[in-house]
Amino acid sequence: MSSAVFDALKRWRSRRAKEMEKPSYVVFGDKTLLGIAEKRPASIAELGRVKGVGAKKLQVYGNEVLDIVRSLGDGATGGARGGPTSTSTLASAWGKASGAPREGFEKKTTTPTPSRTAPVFESKKKPSEGGSVVTEMSSEEARVNYDTKMNAEQRDVVDAVLHHGRNVFFHGAAGTGKSFVLHTLVALLREKHGASDAVAVTAPTGIAAVAIGGCTIHKFIGAGLCAGHPRAVADRVIKSEKATRRWRETRALIVDEVSMLDADIMQKLDFIGRAARGEHDTPFGGLQLVFTGDFYQLPPVSKGAAGAISGPPFAFDCDAWRVADFRAIALSVVLRQRDPRLVEALREVRSGDVPVGGRASSLFRSLQRPLPPNAEGVLPTRLHSVNANVDAENRDELAKLPGASFAFEAVDAGDDAAVLDALRKNCAAPQTLSLKLGAQVVLIKNVDDVLVNGSRGVVRGFVTRGDTEFARHKSSFRIHPRRAADAERAFPRWPLVAFDNGRVLAVGPGEFSASAGKKAYADRLQVPLKLAWALTVHKSQGMTLSRVEVNLRDAFDYGQVYVALSRATNVEGLCVRGFDERKIKAHPKVKRFYDDLSRIGAGQGPRDKENAPVNANGISRKASFGETPRETDPRDARSPPAAPDEAPNHLLAPSTRSQPSGRTERPATCFKCGEAGHWARECPRSACTSAALGNDATKSIPADAGRFGGYTTCDPPSP
Q: How high is the pLDDT of residue 335?
């Protein structure tokens, strides 16, 4: 009997029982789970012969149980056969967090070599069985990633989040494995907290959110566009029972592509977290924060005249970032590019320091030659800075091909209209995918470690389930068992694609999801391909393109040139048009931010006096939006504001203002009495205010003051 299978089944049973709000034995008894672990059934029929598995339970739980048994594979017997076990830091943290054994959880002794049609993380399904595995990475797969696939820097991120419970900002250049670490962390955190809705996975934009199966940060906050003063936004959140429950039930907040998160939203996350969670003295209301991204890539949008003057409002350029006390961890090992010339040239472009005639300039200027089709007939993908002509170019190229067009219609489902609408607007998979023989396509989902998001190919045919080529080259993407029948019915024909690495794959439907908590979910079934004669730089972020032609003539934004060039994997597959050193821009604030991180990591001080002071993690203490600096030492987070004549700068509370202001800051004062030195809730005049003011008392004290814990003492009015 495999103890690993039994333990995994017990954890699954606990989650299932919690979802149904019923005792665990209602799902399966211990004897039944022992029988399943002992017999290791490989099909529904075999599972039905296990004592205690009736017809109804077989129908409800059968596919989930089989997925668990198959996911462990042969490695599940390692402990019973005397195979090696892991006593890593992760194992220890896991045991403390979730009640699992602190050491000795079984580790796969070998990693199977991917077959021609191997799905990502190996579903173990036989071709004749059909169906799919669940949509999320399992905790077992995440542990295998930690033990066998992560480098030391990536493991450091997992340890800091899971074992030490720190707020973590992990960053690095394009292609350093940030997405890989993020998906592994999501699985481990959800297992640690015992519920998927305890971990909120978000991103600043809809496209980025759908790419990671999460929701936008605005959707998580629950106040629409989050416009206005933080107090007004927090008030809208607190008035919504659904939003308040989501804030209180969330234990960890993950934000991907943090470079596009603006300082205004960062400030409001802190303010709303304190108010909605009732933890007024704790930054972000006690939420654990896991941020990832690269500030050298696409920045947040600058709004209004103030934005045009001060530049992009980066998330790190506000007080909320400082009080979060992030541990910053850099991922320095570039995995996407292997050519040291390209790695070094991209490093120069990333920092914005590309001298005319230098090595990077010479390399990219030498790559203006056209790229012919490769042996499989795959043309390079053309990247443009603006999307005005991308769709038109793809349609024109498709129309030039002879023969009939085959249309693949997406199948959408969801239990929340807003989430479903967000999915439709931002999903990488189109509503209608039209293909012909010879169409140039790009894969938008990972198949395995070789065929990944961004792999290029050309359509060689269309096959059905009865064809020989279908059985030989069938792909297998993650689809929830409840949607497997829909996928089989809606996609009887699959495109047969020859990829540029020589692999041939019958590309079946995949699942694209968006969520906003456990009860707000939407997904789309669609063939994970896009026409790939041309793409925008923005939509290519996160992709790895083996053959790419970059047109930089229209580049206009910070980080745009770097994002475009860093999609390439090698010099041989990169063509550069319109290279101009003047278009390569890295924002000065970003350069100072990373310089300070590097210098603090080396035990040195800030770069020069014009930079704002930095804390232990190298985070700027300079107030955002050009305000007069006002800082709060984390050790004094529970102290009231000091009186004006004794208020050193580092004791003043962080600003929550959402708009820029040029006026001189007044000392933080109590809104009840107008004096400094105490919180409003401790105001010595509060007991006699009503008697002293009579009917005017209600005008002096806001009706909702208690809701925000008296934080109006450090909350200047909105300009």
A: 86
DSSP assignment of 692-718 equals: HHGGGHHHHS-TTGGGGTTGGGG-PPP
CA distance 604 to 596: 9
Q: Give yes or no for residue 507 having a pLDDT over 80.
A: yes
CA 558/CA 468 separation, integer angstroms: 50
Q: Is 440 in contact with 378 (CB distance < 8 Å)? A: yes
Phi and psi torsions of 587, nearest 5°: -65, 135
% residues pLDDT > 90 (the chain): 29
Which residue bears the tokens 């996975």?
201
Of 466, 395, 474, nearest to 435 by C-alpha is 395
Residue-level pLDDT at 699: 39
In the predicted structure, residue 630 carries a pLDDT above the cut 70: no
Reported as a pLDDT band with limits 50, 70 and 90, residue 135 is very low
Helix axes 3-20, 30-39, angle to 10 degrees: 140
Amino acid at 401: L
- The answer to whether 564 touches 550, Cβ cutoff 8 Å, is yes
Measured CA distances, 307 to 311, 313, 558 (Å): 5, 7, 14
For the residues 472-498, what does the mean pLDDT come to? Answer: 87
Model confidence at 641: pLDDT above 70: no
Our CA angle for 173, 177, 178, nearest 5°, is 75
In the prediction, which pLDDT does 518 show? 60
Range with lowest mean pLDDT among 41-45, 481-485, 495-499, 613-617: 613-617
Size of the chain, expressed as the number of residues it contains:
719
Separation between Cα atoms, residue 590 and residue 559, nearest integer Å: 11
Average pLDDT, the chain: 75
> Rounded to the nearest 10 degrees, how much is the dihedral formed by the CA atoms of 172, 347, 207, 156?
-10
Between 219 and 617, the higher pLDDT residue: 219
Phi, psi at 714, each rounded to 5°? -120, 30
- Report the alpha-carbon angle 378-379-380, nearest 5: 120
| pTM summary value | 0.55
Residue 363: count of CB within 10 angstroms of its CB: 20
pLDDT at 655 over 70: no
Q: How far is CA 54 from CA 48, 58, 98, 213, 585, in A?
A: 7, 6, 30, 34, 64
Q: Name the H helices within 645-685.
A: none
Contacts 24+ apart (CB under 8 A), 88-95: 88/146, 88/147, 89/155, 89/159, 89/163, 90/143, 90/146, 90/147, 90/155, 90/158, 90/159, 90/162, 90/163, 90/188, 92/163, 93/159, 93/162, 93/163, 94/143, 94/162, 94/188, 94/191, 94/192
**How far apart are the C-alpha atoms of 184 and 290, rounded to whole Å?**
13
Token digits for 603?
């035990």
Mind giving me the DSSP string for 538-549?
Answer: HHHTT--BSSEE
Rounded to 5°, the CA angle 148-149-150 comes to 110
The mean pLDDT of 162-183, rounded to a whole number, is: 92
Contact, 623 vs 316, CB < 8 A?
no
Beta bridge partners of 327: 168
Sign, CA dihedral 257-262-267-271, equals negative
pLDDT band at 339 (very low <50, low <70, confident <90, very high): confident
More confident position, 91 or 349: 349
Q: Are 403 and 461 in contact (CB under 8 A)?
A: no
**Which pLDDT score, from 0 to 100, does residue 439 have?**
93
Beta bridge partners of 406: 435
DSSP 628: P
